[in-house]
UniProtKB/TrEMBL annotation, chain A:
UniProt keyword terms in alphabetical order: Transferase
The UniProt record lists the keyword Transferase: yes
Domain GST C-terminal: 91-222
Location of the GST N-terminal domain: 1-82
Biological-process GO terms, alphabetical: glutathione metabolic process
Protein name, UniProt field: glutathione transferase
InterPro entries, A to Z: Glutathione-S-Trfase_C-like (IPR010987), Glutathione-S-Trfase_C_sf (IPR036282), Glutathione_S-Trfase (IPR040079), Glutathione_S-Trfase_N (IPR004045), GST_C (IPR004046), Thioredoxin-like_sf (IPR036249)
Segments forming a coiled coil: none
Top EC class, one word: transferase
EC number: 2.5.1.18
Transferase is among the record's keywords: yes
TrEMBL record, chain B:
Source taxonomy: Eukaryota, Fungi, Fungi incertae sedis, Mucoromycota, Glomeromycotina
Gene Ontology BP term (one): glutathione metabolic process
Protein name, UniProt field: glutathione transferase
GO molecular function: glutathione binding; glutathione transferase activity
Domain of life per record: Eukaryota
Keyword field: Transferase
Residue ranges constituting the GST C-terminal domain according to the UniProt record: 91-211
Length: 222, 211
């Protein structure tokens, strides 16, 4: 039975799961909700996500929510089944460090990044609000400090945990948005970070996913 | 070689790791940094936590940071070795749901609860505006938890790491603020809290709390 993913590929938590499915070689069907407002419907809350969020994944009868939990579940169940891609190493110590880097993304990287994603990509087009320069300035400053730490973390390494892992994957969709929205200097001004981001952009799964999203935004204007 | 836990026995993250160590029957030593300010020292940032936080766990030569990552690592390595306690089930579907509930804790439960605890308990300031907004937010979250806990003793049916991670911050609400009634007025939530806060391992941790 095919995996069903409920969400919008333009929203980067959904895209996180899409990239994970692609990395593991898993076929899936994407089911966009009727509307963003429908996520607050009683039916959605009762049967899909109790907090009215996306993405939601159905694997047969099994339902799971929250993008990073979904990615861990998919990796746990399907890693190594369709291809050789390793997203979480089998070694308990290496896996622990991947988890640590996922926590860095969630706790330190994503908060300022998501503010920039909202301001640059969604505020005007979806909420008819002009981007707030003060919020953007503060978010850039916060993200710059985080990227200074990442610059050191990546010293002598190609990826956060040495080899490509879920820790790198989880921050790709959001980074792609902000990088392409006039803030590429934050990554490009730091040599290790720049090389790492270029490497991630050159992964087939990311190339394909970022292209699909580009078409979404281009078509939106029409 | 004994596990070394670096942090302060008042930090909810440190308390979560302590409880996990107790639950799994893993002996440990706790090492307090010199002060909270010391966490920003170059030496701490380079050798302990690159973002200047606690907890940090050293297991022999292995160092790992971030509360939930540390707890998952401990479960992965030690679950079933010293006792029969299961914090993350072996079944991939059940484990996935525990992960999901950990994400609910992290994304929806802890942010408003932590904000209030930090203000009232750690900074000891009174902020009626914050209390009002916190109550609205926490009430919405606890409404969801009330439904999630319908017909269940714990979030995923059996006690798991997901329930554990809720304990420390909630403990401070109950022991050091006047807002316990926000939890107690919801029957499933109240029973769940009574159940998880009465676990032996949590009681051992409470004895060690040092402000």
């Amino acid at each position: 039975m095919t995996i069903r993913l409920i969400g919008y590929s333009a929203l980067y938590p959904t895209l996180r799961v899409i990239i994970c499915l692609k990395e593991l070689g898993l076929p899936y069907e994407l089911e966009p909700p009727a509307s963003y407002q429908s996520l607050k419907d009683e039916d959605y809350i009762a049967n899909k996500h109790p907090f009215g969020k996306i993405p939601v994944l159905f694997d047969g009868d099994f339902r799971i929510t929250e993008s990073r939990a979904i990615c861990r579940y998919l990796t746990s169940k399907y890693q190594g089944k369709h291809n050789d891609t390793i997203l979480i190493p089998n070694d308990v110590h290496k896996a622990g460090l991947v988890d640590q880097f996922i926590s860095y993304e969630l706790s330190y990287y994503d908060p300022p990044l998501s503010k920039l994603v909202y301001q640059e990509k969604f505020a005007k087009k979806f909420f008819n609000k002009d981007p707030d320069p003060e919020v953007i300035k503060q978010a850039r400053e916060e993200l710059a400090k985080v990227l200074d730490v990442y610059e050191k973390l990546l010293e002598g390494k190609e990826y956060l945990n040495g080899e490509y892992s879920l820790a790198d994957l989880v921050l790709c969709p959001g980074t792609n948005y902000v990088y392409g929205a006039g803030h590429s200097d934050l990554w490009d001004s730091r040599p290790n970070v720049k090389n790492w981001w270029n490497r991630l952009c050159n992964r087939d799964t990311n190339k394909k996913s970022f292209e699909e999203i580009k078409s979404f935004w281009e078509n939106l204007g029409k | 070689m004994t596990v070394k836990l670096i942090g302060f026995e008042v930090s909810p993250g440190v308390l979560s790791v302590m409880m996990t160590l107790h639950e799994l029957g893993v002996p440990y030593q706790i090492e307090n940094p010199a002060s909270w300010q010391a966490l920003k020292d170059e030496d701490y940032i380079t050798n302990k936590h690159p973002f200047g936080k606690v907890p940090v766990l050293c297991d022999g030569d292995y160092k790992i940071t971030e509360t939930r990552a540390i707890c998952r690592y401990l479960v992965s390595k030690y679950q079933g070795k010293n006792n029969k306690t299961i914090l993350i089930p072996n079944d991939v579907h059940k484990a996935g749901l525990v992960d999901q509930y950990i994400s609910y804790e992290c994304s929806y439960y802890t942010p408003p609860v932590a904000k209030l605890v930090v203000e009232e308990v750690f900074h000891k300031t009174s902020n009626p505006e914050l209390v009002e907004t916190s109550q609205k937010e926490i009430d919405k979250v606890l409404d969801v938890y009330e439904k999630l806990l319908n017909g269940k003793e714990y979030l995923n049916g059996e006690f798991s790491l997901a329930d554990l991670l809720h304990i420390p911050f909630t403990h401070f609400i109950f022991s050091a603020t006047k807002h316990a009634d926000w939890w107690n007025k919801k029957p499933n939530v109240k029973q769940w809290w009574d159940r998880i806060s009465n676990r032996d391992c949590w009681k051992k941790c409470v004895e060690k709390i040092k402000f």
